[in-house]
Amino acid sequence: MKKIGIFYSFNTKNTTEAANQIIKAFGNTNIEANNVEKISDAQFGAYENYILGVPTWFDGELPNYWDEFLPALEEFDLKGKTFALYGAGNQKEYSENFVDAIGILAETIELLGGKIIGFVANKGYKFDHSKALRGNHFVGLPLDFDTQKKLVPERIEKWVEQLKTEFK
Q1: What is the pTM of this model?
Q2: What is the 3-state secondary structure (H, E, C) of 38-63?
Q3: In percent, how much of the chain has pLDDT > 90?
Q4: Closest to 51 (Cα-Cα) out of 122, 1, 95, 90
Q5: Half-sphere exposure of residue 139, counting CA atoms within 13 Å on the CB side?
Q6: Most confident residue range from 20-29, 37-46, 115-124
Q7: Structural domain count of the chain
Q8: CATH number where 159 lies
């Protein structure tokens, strides 16, 4: 498997906690952490395998730092690159837009030719709507640190095992 770049904001509590667990589940090898708030185009383009961490803000929005990076992302040719997405959300308080940011990023990546892996069944989640949902699967790993914190470590472990088989 080729080296993986994991991109998330080092300033977000839950997304960072998840990133640390993901890195540990990969065995701390073959994966490099990158702060999306300080990333250069060259750093981002240096990988073929990506894990992107994105919390959903407000009423289903991308955080400012991801929103500001999208124009640069749109300049990349993502053909041949593989992406796995994870995100934090609250399915009780924000049931109408649970982890929408995952869906927004997935749509952009696919429009630019990138391949999305790491789909997760929506079993065990209770929400009304999500842009991250396709059929009965999310286009990434939803993590609810507010209402299902005890399930987070197990979900991450299972997802990383899945990614190990899906990344090239």
Answers
A1: 0.96
A2: HCCHHHHCCCCEEEEECCCECCCECC
A3: 85
A4: 1
A5: 25
A6: 115-124
A7: 1
A8: 3.40.50.360
